Amino acid sequence: MKTFHARRGRTTTTRVHILENVFPKFELPADEEVLDIREVLNSPEVVVDFGCGMGDATLALLEQGHSVLALDVHTPGICRIAEIADGSGFTNLALFHGDGIPVVQNRLVPSSVKTFLVLFPDPWPKAKHNKRRLIQPHFLDIVRDLLTIDGELVIATDDASYAEHIEEVFSSYTGLQLVPNTFQIPETGFHRRGLSLGNAVAIFSLRKN
User: Fold this and answer.
1) Mean pLDDT across the stretch 151-165?
2) Is residue 183 part of a domain?
């Protein structure tokens, strides 16, 4: 598989240039129109990389031929994905720079996403911050509506406390069914960091009922 070199030392000026001149080539249309992401990417199956970070997973998925919608508030990561995708000639990509929740909740038509990835989300380890964790029943409702009839939500974490939290949320949630994971998750920087620290990586795959 092709290795994409991390371009993490970009200056503010360079990032502004990428945001103004490269990012728009892949930007999800900014109006409020509800979109069928399959039509946007001209693909019957779309993967959503929610919270794509520095883009390691997104870029690997593009290289494998997947059509990907990647969303994140992280400017360096979005710029890196746009720059490398443009240089590699990828056309199977849509990007959103900002809070992804309103997009997946309001901008995408139901039953349009084959695979929804949440890879190594912020664990919010302090007990007083647990309510900020992304994986909550309301978020699962949003994802369930987006998934195709055989679509899956795949979550990975190397934080033991977050894994327990996820299991607890799933135990009382009936809209998605826990199934053995078959989706090959690309490695990310957080994935490699977790393994280097000796952390166990928990992967959860949930299929729409």
Assistant:
1) 95
2) yes
